[in-house]
Write a structure and sequence with these properties.
five-stranded mixed β-sheet; alpha+beta; 221 residues; four-stranded antiparallel β-sheet; 7 helices
Amino acid sequence: MLCATDLWKETYPGASAGYLVLGNVSNPDCCESLEESKRKLEAKLRTRFLRKDDLSLDPAMAAYSNYYKRHKKTYHVLQQLESIIFKGKSIPRVAGLVEAMFMAELKNGLLTAGHDYAALQGSLLLDVAAGDESYVLINKREQLAKAGDMKMSDSRGMISSVIHGPDFRTRIVPETKKVVFTVYAPSGISQQAVANHLTDIYAFVKQCAPDTAIESQGVVG
């Protein structure tokens, strides 16, 4: 399902990436079970991180922040966590599959993207962007890849990058019946942490799609 190029391995030693394929999913507009889990997660995060320093020193936040700084960016998951923990914001309500992914992302701090399996063509390739690739983001805006950034592609082109996020073509839609979640993990995050993150995604998805099942999963590094 996912392979890494030699260039990626040479450029990012110690990094890894994970994937999780779930079949027989549903993507409801609202899932009351997830709503209850959101409130519990918010409370746990506010107990776990009492100060901003506690959050910024978290190993996952530190690893991503170091990566983003090299590209003169700020890790957006860190900003989202700060809003929830220190500003009293709530985890937003969106479609079930996206909510499940986002909740795991907040719980573990690991950057994740979701894709409709039916929209993908061929296997996925983990590589380093040259900077001349372009793809259409989920907001329908065409984006040029950032040179040196981690990227994933199928046989038709890029489906995501760390800095700019997922694409529009393979986005999760209301009719999605089979989904692929992918995780980028820079150096400093263990492969076991990635595997645990995939387990959390599955558990959250089961709340809104009880009949779902894991079809394949793995961690590449």
